[in-house]
Amino acid sequence: MREVIQRGAPIPLILFLTSVVWTFLGNDLPQTLLLAFLGSTLFYFLFYVIEKNMGAYVLRRFLEAGFTIFVIATMTFLLLRVIPGGPFDEEKALPPAVKANIEAKYGLDDPLWKQYANYMGGLLQGDLGESYKYVGRPITEIIGSALPNSIQLGVYALLVAYLLGLPLGVIAASRHGTWVDSAMMVTAISGVSLPSFLVAPLFVILFSFTLNWLEPALWMGPSYYILPMVVLGIRPAAGIARLTRASVLEVIQSDFIRTAKSKGLSERNILFKHVLRNSLIPVLSLAGPMIAGILTGSFIIELIFAIPGLAKHMVQSVTNRDYPLVLGATLLFAFLLVLANLISDLIIAMIDPRVKFS
Amino acid sequence: MPKFLHLILGAVLASLLFSGCTKKSGLDYGLKVEETLRINLQQEPPSLDWHKSSDTTSAMIEYNIMDGLTDYNLNDPELGLKPALAESWTSSNNSKTWTFTLRKDVKWTDGKPFEAQHVIDGWKRILNPETASIYAYFLFTVKNAEKFNKGEIKDFSKVGVSINDKGQLVVELEAPQSYFPSLLTHHATYPIRLDVVEKFGTQWTDPENIQTLGAYKLKIWDHDKAIVLERNDDYYGDKAKIKYVYGYMINEFSTAMGLFESGRLDFQDSIPANDIQRMKSEPTFRTSPLLGTYYYGFNARKKPFNDVLVRKAFVHAVDRSQITTLLGGDMSPLKAWVPKGMFGYEETIGLDFDPEKAKKLLKEAGYSDVSKFPRVVLGFNSNENHQRVAENYQAQIKKNLGISVEIQSEEWKVYLDRLRNDTPDIYRLGWLADYPDPDNFLNLMTKASENNHTGWSNSKFDELIQRGSSVADKEERRSIYIRAQRLLTEEDVPVNPIYSMVAHFLVSDRVKDFPNNSLSKIELKGVSFK
Amino acid sequence: MIIDQDSWKRLNKNKVALASGGLILGLILVALFAPILSPYPFDEQHLDKVLNSFSWEHLLGTDNLGRDMLSRLIYGARISMAVAVFTAIIALFIGILYGSVSGWLGGWVDSLMMRAIDILDSIPALVLLILVKVFFDSMGLVENPELRSLLGMLLALSFVSWVSMARLVRAQVLQVKQMAYVEASRSMGSSGARSLVKHVLPNIAGSVMVLLTYQIPSNILFESFLSFLGLGLQPPYASWGVLANDGWRTMRTYPHLMISPGVAIFMAMLSFNLLGDGLRDAIDPKSK
């Protein structure tokens, strides 16, 4: 039984890749596919947790994550209230009676602790309130319609990063010391040194306005997706390439591999089976900060390419003092970051037999 | 594993090629370019509930999908009114009572006829304290409306709007207000279908739920992506010429420009100052008067601007045309208070640029030694335009009066907060007309106005404003407003008007009959393709 | 990682790193001698020569107010470098302090302090940047608006970058704490602080230097992000980030506005990255 389940471990990965390719072609993600993916991921996650006896560790991490989110919520809540300027301060000043009505409606005239308690209470029930600026729209709906686009962009960029970075790093390492190695590393380091808002317009001018191959803005299909995801993926790709190369080199030059080589195993065999396995660990451990970088960088990209994602809401809501939206977006981002870190830690734990947990 | 990689790479490449082959020449949502006007709204409208929205994007859409009782007449150089849902109206009792005869041939998009009751329902909704509507105060001149909004009266039938036995809408006001019909151009006073709102709650503005009666109807609202309007073929008036309107929501100007210049966009406004110079000579560039003013206010509560001589000196010391030239946008320098393009605009009133006089006045005020002049701060919200104006103002004051004014910019909301709590010595503000009447502007400087941050007030001025609002004869009103503006900009001078705003926008070659943009709302129904 | 004779030797052999170091040195010199080097004052407007491209009078062209781009770029170097370096230094101090205290004290204090850092790390950098900047601006601690804007930016940027420094220092402190001779000297009576300074700091100097070198380009990047959001410096002061931001908006029609700051940012970041690599390889050759 266990054997069968273990054989099926790639299933979540296959479902993930299918979803990615399907949505990339411009289609909506069918609910069944999404549920299948999430379900199988959860299943295998629990399976491995039990297998490797990581239950206590996982539980502890989840609790810590929850606590982290709670602290972030509180901090953001307070910080927002401390900053001058309220959500309904307008250039055209309101008569006090009208202002009073609005503040009463949103509970802004309650004492601070009460507002905090109300918000936290709602949060626990999954109610994030309504936006002040987008009158009547629940935060969950605003975030709900913006988040998939941001996630799409992030996932595509991440894939670009790994699909570009891994091969680049491996090839550079295997051709260590030759011009190929140097050339690739120069490319990589250039990639890290170029801010996205410089690269983006260059690409747009070239691929869109001049060659007319791709769309310059918006987010409606593959020809729209390509430029933003590539631009966003370049820097992480470069970082991955560098790290992969270093990591692969370290493993190649280690005793373990030399032993295997001396035993006569083919280079290809060695490379793919042993080297990759061991060198991927530090690369995967980068996934957490990489995702953080992508989430941050996506804002500029979303703005330049007019993509209707979350980052734009995040920043504008601070300017508008739209408290519920700031809180909702911040908490969501924090949640995603915490989740990403958690997942990458857990993946490392699963892959690397040497890692133990307290 | 590597084989898998190959598979994925293959799939990606294949889809790339595939997508390349099928790159659309048409628009999204199945629309065809030949019958769609593509405009850039620049942002997602916060709300299409016309009783709750308070921004220009929402107002623009609402203006095209709905009509009010009255509309403003773009063909009138002084921007008068024309009938809309109301065929005609009369006033009696010295402009305290207004009777509106409503059209009988108007239908909502579901076919139900428009009735006077819908107007009353709308006003009740906006005045209801629970709706917490920002523009509730628009209707405060209606009898008992303010009390109802404050919750002092709970019974709406006591509010001064009713239907008489002839089916006409009768409005009783608290005080005479000759320009009352002007208010009815604003979306806050639009009628509403209560049954729709009650049935669908906050989702009533979704395209499948909303009921409207204007020249266009809301077909698609893809949040943060696009809005599509479709011509209303049952519209009571002149039908719109173009079948569809596609509203993009692209905030970044350079992205939008890229689309415009590659022929993917028909209309773009809010052109940044930098680009105005360059675009001015293009055939696609248009300018239209915008009913808005840009002004500096003095904090007259404390030194040095508590002295009218100092205020006058500062106004005389600045050549407004230098500022408008610097901004390069054909704005007209404004010396009086009501902007160019509407009734009440007076070209000759106000203080001229006269540096000699300025120096004299300063000396008279006791500041012959300018080094003893107190520290003065000019505050504004961070924005490239405001920065340039402020720097130029600062330079001119330095040159003509020898005084160094400190300029301070702050983030918008922080600045608004500061305006109310710790007004800078000189503060920047602007005003865009809510409705095309001079009262909307002059009202700003009355004692009671929330927007008067100068600390100055003058009972004579307040009296004039009150009289102006109640008098019915246009010419009499004109002379009253001349007197008021004289008082404001020549005698007491608590403010330094700078310029009348101007709207710049780009219209693609294939479009004709694009209207002016005076109130930041574009009337789309008259636009057509060549 | 200890810096010793061998480290310097290795560094010297790395031509690329040396070249980058030279470039950075040049950059610092340009920043310091900006008033002497730039042909025009950075805020002088020539309203008759607006938006000119490259010419003999204005080697890098002029901007929308007729200001000389070369001069703006030179002064921009000063501001960008100042911002990047000072941010790095502030982050360094806070990070070293925090990391040392946390690592040295250990126990529950350490856990608590690390937990706090994890939480801080989870707040999206952009939101934090904006909140801190707006908060600081509104406090009104500093009267002069340009200084206030600059300080606010430094503070906001440092806030998002000191964490990695703290983590690094703490890790090193923990490592050193366990070293035998530290234990020995402690038992002989030297105070904790002295042990710290004497043993830990030299050991971490190498890694700290490397981290610093990497942080500077990311500070330059973050600063240009802030400018992009309109929260950067107020005109007429311009860092490279501000110049690039102004430039990319008109890239299709006036490319010269973006080419010079773009190239400058790229070269600076490249040099710092290469130098960082070189330092890291020199100090810890195993990581090559």
Describe the structure using short key phrases.
heterotrimer; B: 530 residues; 16 helices; C: 288 residues; mainly alpha; 11 helices
Largest sheet of chain B: 7 strands, mixed
Number of helices of chain C: 11
Morphology of chain C: globular
Structural class of chain C: mainly alpha
What is the C-alpha radius of gyration of chain B, as a whole number of Å?
A: 26 Å
- On the 0-100 scale, what is the average pLDDT of chain B? 88
The number of helices of chain B is 16
What is the general shape of chain B? globular
Strand tally of chain C, please? Answer: 0
* Helicity of chain C, as a percent range: over 70%
The main β sheet of chain C shows up as: none
**Low-confidence regions of chain B:** 18-25
Mean pLDDT of chain C, as a whole number? 78
Euclidean distance between termini CA atoms of chain B: 59 Å
Number of DSSP-assigned strands of chain B: 19
Q: What is the multimeric organization of the chains shown? A: heterotrimer
Question: Can you tell me about this structure?
Answer:
The complex is a heterotrimer of chains A (about 350), B (about 525) and C (about 290). Chain A has helices spanning about 1-5, 10-25, 30-50, 55-80, 95-105, 110-125, 140-175, 180-195, 195-210, 220-250, 255-260, 265-285, 285-305, 310-320, 325-350. With about 350 residues, chain A is mainly α. Chain A has a domain at about 145-350: Orthogonal Bundle (MetI-like fold), CATH 1.10.3720.10. Chain A is globular, with a radius of gyration of 24 Å. Chain A starts with a helix and ends in a 7-residue tail after the last helix. In chain B, strands 11, 12, 13, 14, 15, 16 and 17 form a 7-stranded mixed sheet that branches. A 4-stranded mixed sheet of chain B has the order 1-10-9-8, with no helix packed on it. In chain B, strands 4-5-7-6 form a 4-stranded antiparallel sheet, with helices on one face. Chain B is α+β, with helices and mostly antiparallel strands. The N and C termini of chain B lie far apart (about 60 Å). Chain B contains 16 helices and 19 strands. In chain B, about 30% of the residues lie in helices and about 20% in strands. Chain C has about 290 residues and is an all-alpha fold. Chain C has helices at about 5-15, 15-30, 35, 70-105, 105-120, 125-140, 145-175, 180-185, 190-230, 240-250, 255-285. The longest helix of chain C is centred in the first third of the chain and has 37 residues, at about 70-105. The mean pLDDT of chain C is about 80. Chains in contact: A-B, A-C, B-C. The interface of B and C includes residues 277, 391, 406, 409 and 417 of B.
